Amino acid sequence: MTQYIVRRLIHSVFIVWGCATLVFFMIRLIPGDPVLQMLGPEYTPEAAEALRHKLGLDQPIYVQYLKWFSSVLRGDLGDSIATGETVVGAIKTGFPKTLSITVLSFLIALAIALPAGIVAALRRNSVIDYLVSILAFAGVSMPGFWFGIILIILFAVQLRWLPAVGYASLTQDGFWPWLSHLLLPSLAVGTGYAAILMRFVRAGLLEVLGMDYVRTARAKGLAEWTVIARHALRNALIPVVTVAGIQLALLLSGTVVIETVFSIRGLGRILVGAIFDKDYPIVQGVILLIAVIFVMANLIVDIIYTFLDPRIRYG
């Protein structure tokens, strides 16, 4: 296992480097000049040339790449072209907000998906199964931004229980202000996420329940919930873990729409704003972080496989 993890980490370095390199060159193919966008329509050629030289954009692209790559190796992701803020500083500002939404959404999704999927599988073709299936399809079909607006109207405008927009820091504002600002966006994200996981839990458990070792466990006289929890559910969770890992990485890479609806400047909004502003350093830094998140999520999922199924071993 240790050798496998070391090999995967080495491979991951090359994957992250390839993604970062691809983004570095592709973003420069986007039409438009960031210098002219910063100066506005009434720019002068002299001012544009001076700013381009200051930002290093007048150098050949391979020189720009070598300078950027050497800076990354030193832990320096550069400064924002648009605001002058360091890329690391921008990521530190946005990532905790996105991480907070992601973690709470993930917990809400698990709290809904696991019991609902298990009950639907155990009560196959019953009214409960049909009801859970209808709710799952509704959750998958329902746009997150629309559900978020409904939550704002209901809980923030009508009932006035929770704040409609914004973000409160856990360390500075306290636990309840932090949680109250996250509940609505996390519900909007977690409900759709739960619908996806719910279908996988139900399908995986139905497949496992028909296997010989489950029938043997029941024939031994074990309690039904012991059979489900210790024998069936553990193997049924393997595809669920795969989907959960990918979805968790997607959420961490930026819940752009939800962050926009609830006016939270998380990682997703920072990335989209940087793309529109042609802010090369911000885009490169955020994409580099996203690549690391996806690579590590896949590695963690592979490791979890070995705990769920002892037959899985990586040589």
TrEMBL record:
<feature type="transmembrane region" description="Helical">
    <location>
        <begin position="12"/>
        <end position="30"/>
    </location>
</feature>
<keyword id="KW-0472">Membrane</keyword>
<keyword id="KW-0812">Transmembrane</keyword>
<feature type="transmembrane region" description="Helical">
    <location>
        <begin position="236"/>
        <end position="262"/>
    </location>
</feature>
<dbReference type="GO" id="GO:0071916">
    <property type="term" value="F:dipeptide transmembrane transporter activity"/>
</dbReference>
<protein>
    <submittedName>
        <fullName>ABC transporter permease</fullName>
    </submittedName>
</protein>
<keyword id="KW-1003">Cell membrane</keyword>
<keyword id="KW-0813">Transport</keyword>
<comment type="similarity">
    <text>Belongs to the binding-protein-dependent transport system permease family.</text>
</comment>
<feature type="transmembrane region" description="Helical">
    <location>
        <begin position="282"/>
        <end position="308"/>
    </location>
</feature>
<feature type="transmembrane region" description="Helical">
    <location>
        <begin position="101"/>
        <end position="122"/>
    </location>
</feature>
<dbReference type="GO" id="GO:0005886">
    <property type="term" value="C:plasma membrane"/>
</dbReference>
<dbReference type="Pfam" id="PF19300">
    <property type="entry name" value="BPD_transp_1_N"/>
</dbReference>
<keyword id="KW-1133">Transmembrane helix</keyword>
<dbReference type="InterPro" id="IPR000515">
    <property type="entry name" value="MetI-like"/>
</dbReference>
<feature type="transmembrane region" description="Helical">
    <location>
        <begin position="178"/>
        <end position="201"/>
    </location>
</feature>
<dbReference type="InterPro" id="IPR035906">
    <property type="entry name" value="MetI-like_sf"/>
</dbReference>
<feature type="transmembrane region" description="Helical">
    <location>
        <begin position="134"/>
        <end position="158"/>
    </location>
</feature>
<feature type="domain" description="ABC transmembrane type-1">
    <location>
        <begin position="95"/>
        <end position="305"/>
    </location>
</feature>
<dbReference type="InterPro" id="IPR045621">
    <property type="entry name" value="BPD_transp_1_N"/>
</dbReference>
<dbReference type="Pfam" id="PF00528">
    <property type="entry name" value="BPD_transp_1"/>
</dbReference>
